[in-house]
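Hey all, quick one. A colleague (J.T.) asked me to put the fructose -6-phosphate job into the tracker so the inputs and the structure tokens live in one place instead of scattered across chat threads. No bug as far as I know, just bookkeeping. Sequence used:
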Amino acid sequence: MDNFTKPKVLVGKKADLMSRLADEVEMGIRMRAAENRGFVLGLATGSTPIPLYQELVRRHREEGLSFQNVITFNLDEYEGLAPDHPKSYHAYMEKHLFGQVDVRLERTFLPPGNYEDENRAAQYYEAKIREFGGIDLQILGIGRDGHIGFNEPGSGRETRTRRVALAEVTREDAASGFGGIENVPTHAMTMGVATILEARRIILIATGEGKREVVQEAINGMVNSAVPATFLQDHSNTAWYLDAAAAG
Ligand code: F6R
């Protein structure tokens, strides 16, 4: 199964992909737990990883998978949303994962939605990732415009955690959840491309026909900042998990 040619692409049914992904997460957690060490997991929000979180919660409840040794870092957060705002990614994580497993909440990190000094807030986040030894496994989704995290087109390979403006298409995609595009924040704080590429392993999940074109471009297109996901081509340990609709 690990005999992939580069780039490593796994195409399968959504449920199978999620279970395979949950296997990787579980293996990482258990291997580190056996050594009495923490497992550092990078997390994405959005609709794509929800079935993964459901599967992890199920394994916690039914199979005793413990998250006690897990440290999490999320990719991004909308600007201006308090952690308890229902559309914040803080609230999303609480709802879909953190509130349902035994993870130590003081070791779950997300970029802040509110900050006085954006540079200090960004540097603090980067420092926290370093403090825990870097990210072992980063889960990613992909935006229709090729963003990873909220690294919108134009984001270079060297970018680190920072405040960014959201692309119009990203705000359009979020509009229904916010009850109209006018309610979608215009900015966010996101891990940078360089921050993401430092993860020891990356798995990007894409499902549904709406992602087909951008996935094609990200995997086969020229590496450049117009489609930030193309930078993953330069990461030696990235896998693409695609359902048939996204793989085309
Ligand atoms: C979310 C994130 C984004 C999403 C992407 C896909 O934390 O960083 O890059 O992964 O926008 O979103 P969905 O899964 O909703 O299509």
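Adding what we noticed when we looked at it: Helices lie at 14-34, 50-63, 89-96, 118-131, 168-178, 193-197, 212-220, 244-247. The first strand starts at residue 8 and ends at 11.
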